[in-house]
Amino acid sequence: MIYLDYNATTPVDPVVLERMLPYFSEQFGNASSAAHAYGWAASEAVKQARDILAGHIGAEERELIFTSGATESINLALKGVAEAYRSKGTHIITCQTEHKAVLDTCKALEFDGFTVTYLPVDAHGQVDVQAFSDAITDQTILAAFMWANNETGVVHPVADLYAVARERGVLLLTDATQALGKLPVSAEHADLLAVSGHKVYGPKGIGALYVSRRNPRVRLVPHLDGGGQERGLRGGTLNVPGIVGLGAAVDLAAGQIGTEAARLATLRDRLEAGLQERLDDVTVNGASAHRLPNTANLQFAGIRADTFMAAARGLAVSAGSACSSATGKPSHVLKAMGLTDAEAFASIRFSLGRDTTPADIEAAIDEITAVVGTIRADTAHVVAS
Hints:
With 385 residues, the protein is of the alpha/beta class. The protein contains 12 helices and 12 strands.
């Protein structure tokens, strides 16, 4: 099977796994155990990983909080800021195409008395910076915009959005989960920034949240109480192997980000061009926007994505976010871009990765062409009969 669902998750890189393994066995200590060498070794490993991640995103090591993943990071950021700044205001701004981790958390905050503005996007999936500025009120305390969309790969103008937020005294959270390792990601464009290990060839169950400590110093109300780990903002025994893996994965990705981005963009463009050459009515969703180099969201008129995926046994792809794949509803991202239900249901996400080869792309083009052709022919036959 050809794996083209890297935006859902990535395999742990062998180099990363090798770095992690000792912390499951020989170096199994608790990083909070300060009385003996096992704890010291674990604590030092955590410090090194924290330094690596901080260095690659331009942060200070004390500005990073390790979590179980981006969803927890986003919850801590949104709820933590909302509670800490409630006396200042109760208005939050986000975007209709955000990940459900943001949207569902915002919905929960609405039940708690907060007001949320969900900004629309244009037909290319991009949010308008001026619309963001216009939406800010004297009650606005926080805005949340993802760095890059997980379904379409569309990249938001985070630097421009942050400039507006700074000027207006609003904190900005960015979900950089999909961008990390594919694009340069910098904490200079956010007050809070969430990442996850398993999207960047690290392990599942580990993530981090950057929280600015100066200009401005961001305050959070913690949501996990326990042993006072992570500066009291996230209690619980640290996942030392996972943290080591996250650091190693980010370090590895940073060393090849330019060459890998160019390679993946070439393969993605070949996939899109090859399918449009061989099939009619194939549309690239978000084609005119700045996109992640590895992501193609394609609409095949006359088919349904679920029918396609059941028939394309040689391909691992998805109809959108892995977190929302079981809902049976059309993609909220594509609907926000103006697609009809039928168009959204006919769209498939192909996300390429480190192990994707030119031969994989050619084989995928062949199988997609054959499967789409068969589905369309069967549909035409049913209609004719």
